[in-house]
Amino acid sequence: MTTGDTMSYDGVLLRHVTKDLSEILKDGRIHKIYQIDDLTFLFNLRTRKTHTLVISASKQNARIHLSEASYDKPYNPPMFCMFLRKHLEGGFIKAVSQHNNDRVAIFTIKHRNELGDFADKHLIVELFGKDANIVLTDENYKILDALNHVGAFETERTMVGGATYQFPNDERINPFDEDALKNTLNDLQSDNHRDYLKKIQGVSPLFIKEFLHRRTVNQEKDAPLFRRLLHETDPHMVTGKRIVFASFDPTHVEGKRERFESLHAMLDYVYTARDRESAKRQQAQTLQTFVQKQIDKQTAKIERLQKALRETEKIGEYQTYGELILAHQHMIEKGDREVTCHDYYKDQETTIELDPKKSPVENSKLYFEKAKKQKKSVPHLKRQIRKAKREKEYFFLLESQIEHASLSDLREIKDELHDYGYLKKKSERKKAPKRQNRFLLFEDADGVEIMVGKNNRQNAIVTHKEAKHYHVWFHVKDAPGSHVVVKKGFPLSETTIRSAAHLAAYFSKMRYSGSVAVDYTEVKNIKKIPGQKPCFVTYKKQKTIYIDPSEQTIQNMRRSKE
């Protein structure tokens, strides 16, 4: 998902959102509060039904909206979350309002105090980008605490416990003041959107550009058009060079248009996608860095072991030196650092280094021991090289999987690294629920189901648990890739074979190559390799098909479920 206009969530949009929330959440009870990341909170509220309210002070994605999405909820809430729970859980939403047309929302919450009496508290959310904040005050706007503290003298407004909350000072006109708006528009008469931003509070460049566009196209008077655009509720998202969204249809923006039934549905879609994409990028980058370090580590280890193995080629040389020293010990005296003698194996003179502290016999024994030690090390070195190569192959496989993984796939890969001991698990007070390993399930044009594993755990499930012995297994030849299983036995139609081969090639390291070789055989011919990770298998009696991976072909295949 491409980056959208961060100013799309302006005061006008917030006006519509707070109006909706004041109706939907009025008298709603705050059941539970969660903090899902450093700056984002979930409020679980109950009216006649259960609602999830997202409040975020994210620098890039500050917002407020109701959500239908599912979220991972941490078991150990941070301090500010605990503070909000103490002061707000069990309280009732009395009102939701907006300060003028600024990006400031105020939740007035009725909550029992320490004496058991009801008292009002204000949860103030400031959606100011890099200066976004969440502040809790008492009924007199005395700050109890803030998510982001701002000390005295740092800015004009202090955000610490005990200070009095001050709303931002904005001298621009509130566009919902009809007289002020009419006078301002009459004075401006400009085609430059920046002129309007300097005079009118809480409107984004997107809003003003749409106003100017409609004024030109429809030849309408300024004030009526501006007011109608302020009150228009027709939530749209437009995907073009960037993604923009608004409470109206931004007709001046070109791209793919999508209308939503409600503002909250639109905001939930936009921000959930952004958050997941952001989390995916961060998780993928962390895993890619780790995996690359492991690849480099195993590469260096293999080079070191191979160098040691090459040294063992001197076994015969050390054995010969030991024998020559014994044969020429009459020429050697203790204290000598070398001896030059006739090598009767090569029929030439050779010079042998000696330990001056040792006798001829002891020097001979030293070379015999070196030869014996290196001879013993050969099998060990070969085993270590094979093991290091397997490790390197494993991390190459993970590298391929990370490249095209979803957020849930990345989490499963991380869990796998924890299980194998490559990553240390963080201790948690409660045991986290086991993640479901959701492989992909497609249907080809013949209606045949095809399973696709996108990481090692899913591959193991697809091949060793879900597949029947007569099902047909596909895998890209001689490269890292997904295990693909057709849930049907031979004979297969050409459509099914090509569809499964497309999936195997597409979900592999060879995605962007041409004429990719894909092997396929019955599942009963797949065997785990003893002593290796379950993701590594051997197979026999395979056939091979060559395929050109096509993303369009994959998109045309209907994905039944995950």
Outline the structure in words:
With 562 residues, the chain is an alpha+beta fold. It folds into 4 domains: 11-146, ibrinogen binding protein from staphylococcus aureus fold (Roll); 178-259, no CATH class; 283-427; 440-561, no CATH class. Helix content is 38%, strand content 22%. It contains 13 helices and 23 strands. It has helices spanning 11-24, 79-88, 178-188, 193-199, 205-218, 222-231, 263-311, 315-327, 360-403, 407-419, 456-466, 494-506, 551-556; strands at residues 29-37, 40-46, 50-56, 63-67, 92-98, 104-112, 118-126, 133-138, 143-146, 236-239, 243-246, 256-259, 338-343, 348-353, 440-443, 449-452, 472-476, 484-486, 516-522, 526-528, 537-539, 543-547, 558-561. The strands form 6 sheets. It has a 7-stranded antiparallel sheet, with helices on both faces. A 5-stranded antiparallel sheet has the order 5-6-7-8-9, with helices on one face. It is elongated, with a radius of gyration of 35 Å. The two termini are 21 Å apart.
Looking at this protein, list some descriptive labels.
single chain; about 550 residues; alpha+beta; ibrinogen binding protein from staphylococcus aureus fold; 4 domains; 5-stranded antiparallel beta sheet
What is the topology?
Blueprint: H1 11-24, E1 29-37, E2 40-46, E3 50-56, E4 63-67, H2 79-88, E5 92-98, E6 104-112, E7 118-126, E8 133-138, E9 143-146, H3 178-188, H4 193-199, H5 205-218, H6 222-231, E10 236-239, E11 243-246, E12 256-259, H7 263-311, H8 315-327, E13 338-343, E14 348-353, H9 360-403, H10 407-419, E15 440-443, E16 449-452, H11 456-466, E17 472-476, E18 484-486, H12 494-506, E19 516-522, E20 526-528, E21 537-539, E22 543-547, H13 551-556, E23 558-561
